[in-house]
Amino acid sequence: xxxxxxxxxxxxxxxxxxxxxxxxxxxxxxxxxxxxxxxxxxxxxxxxxxxxxxxxxxxxxxxxxxxxxxxxxxxxxxxxxxxxxxxxxxxxxxxxxxxxxxxxxxxxxxxxxxxxxxxxxxxxxxxxxxxxxxxxxxxxxxxxxxxxxxxxxxxxxxxxxxxxxxxxxxxxxxxxxxxxxxxxxxxxxxxxxxxxxxxxxxxxxxxxxxxxxxxxxxxxxx
Length: 222
What we know:
8 helices; about 220 residues; alpha+beta; two-stranded antiparallel ribbon; Heat Shock Protein 90
């Protein structure tokens, strides 16, 4: 029998994978569909049926809370389990972050020069994979992503710009809070996870519109 503790450890290991991201998104779709169905049936079914829909939604919220728990190791390293910061090539990170099968009408421009970053390669790949996937979805699989990089004051500044429709202004202030999303059926875990990883590296992340640009600052490897 798998204990609750073991279950959380398994989820933590899975949280690094694309499969986990797909599961999280699927749960969010179920929640959205459940909510819309409940509203559409309010005038034609009895209260007992509506209460069942409410119970389903509460169960999904609890499940999403469990998913959120799996991200905590990113934001607060544990003693004896802290991964070593080391030299990481920005080029290598970005090349590994680009999806294997990107849509044919998506074009990605990489920086002209490489930079040495002090960080944890696996987590930085997760960070940029998340941002690039978000950009592809925001552009509806057609457009251009431009990634620029500069070095200043012992920091590498990386800009991820896309030609999407932008982020609604009312969502900007909550963009890096869990469960805030600009996608119709998204979970919001992408941007909050990105911030957790950047915080772990002692960096910063911000976003703006016109054009949509995420700006990340990470420490230079010296």
